[in-house]
From TrEMBL:
Domain GST N-terminal: 25-107
PROSITE patterns attached to this UniProt entry: GST_CTER, GST_NTER
Entries under SUPFAM superfamilies matching the protein: GST C-terminal domain-like (SSF47616), Thioredoxin-like (SSF52833)
InterPro entries attached to this UniProt entry: Glutathione-S-Trfase_C-like (IPR010987), Glutathione-S-Trfase_C_sf (IPR036282), Glutathione_S-Trfase (IPR040079), Glutathione_S-Trfase_N (IPR004045), GST_C (IPR004046), GST_Zeta (IPR005955), Thioredoxin-like_sf (IPR036249)
Family that this chain belongs to: Belongs to the GST superfamily. Zeta family.
GST C-terminal domain: residues covered: 112-234
Molecular function via GO: glutathione transferase activity; maleylacetoacetate isomerase activity
GO CC term, one of those recorded: cytoplasm
UniProt-recorded name of the protein: Uncharacterized protein
GO biological process: glutathione metabolic process; L-phenylalanine catabolic process
Length: 241
């Protein structure tokens, strides 16, 4: 259900074409294979069975910081989502909420108000683990690289410890009881980020690890994995998920 955009066109040409569309079109997700927030939205789109076009933004070479990308999101962050009518949405949670309201099939939030609130709290806790911001801040400090990396790991592990305790009391098979929710859409990409980018040993967080492993048996999570995306470097494709 994913169409890949024409990579021969520059982003400025693509934006000019996309933003000039007047009639309803196939939605477009502007994201990156390696971006944690983009993966959340890919999972939601797959969960809802929404046909969309994927346009890769090369964040590893700073394409999201370009003046051309500014036309999509002045905050210069991923993901961005263009609706069928050409409207732009940013922030993964806002995009997911839009999808929930406009595509009622396969609900992504728990029905009970209390459980919905718990799911929202977990998504916010995950958003608060700002791994990129921690790294950016520490890179500005005159610190030995090994010590800097250890400090980053310690900060992340402290945040994960709190998340683990919350999930311990809210979970069943998944983050909130036995029904998949947006909290799970956020958990799996977080696990990828902290293990692949920061080398966190997740064995110390058994509830997070168990839920992540269960979710990764499902097609919605496997198909949207970074290493299964069209913009993933060839040498990483087929790597262990």
């Amino acid at each position: 259900m994913v169409e890949t955009g024409n990579t021969d066109h520059s982003i400025s040409e693509q934006l000019q074409n996309d933003c000039s569309l007047k009639e309803e079109q196939i939605p477009i997700l502007y994201g990156s294979y390696i971006d944690e927030a983009s993966w959340r939205v890919r999972i939601a789109l797959e969960w809802k069975g929404i046909n969309y076009r994927y346009e890769s933004i090369d964040i590893e070479h700073g394409e999201h910081l370009s003046s051309r990308f500014y036309k999509l999101n002045p905050c210069k962050k991923l993901p961005c989502y263009m609706t069928r009518t050409g409207k732009i949405l940013t922030q993964s949670l806002a995009i997911i909420e839009y999808l929930e309201l406009n595509y009622p099939q396969r609900p992504m939030w728990p029905k009970a108000n209390y459980h919905r609130a718990k799911a929202i709290a977990i998504t916010q806790d995950i958003c608060d683990i700002q791994t990129s911001e921690i790294k950016k801040y520490l890179n500005m400090i005159d610190m030995d690289p090994d010590r800097r990396q250890e400090t980053i790991r310690r900060e992340i592990e402290g945040a994960l410890e709190g998340l683990e305790k919350k999930i311990k009391y809210s979970s069943g098979t998944y983050c909130i009881g036995d029904h998949i929710s947006v909290a799970d859409f956020f958990l799996v990409p977080l696990h990828f980020t902290v293990t692949k980018k920061f080398g966190i040993d997740m064995k110390q967080f058994p509830y997070i690890t168990r839920i992540r492993n269960t979710l990764m048996t499902l097609s919605e999570f496997k198909n949207t994995h970074p290493y299964n995306q069209p913009d993933c470097p060839e040498q990483l494709r087929g790597s262990e998920l």
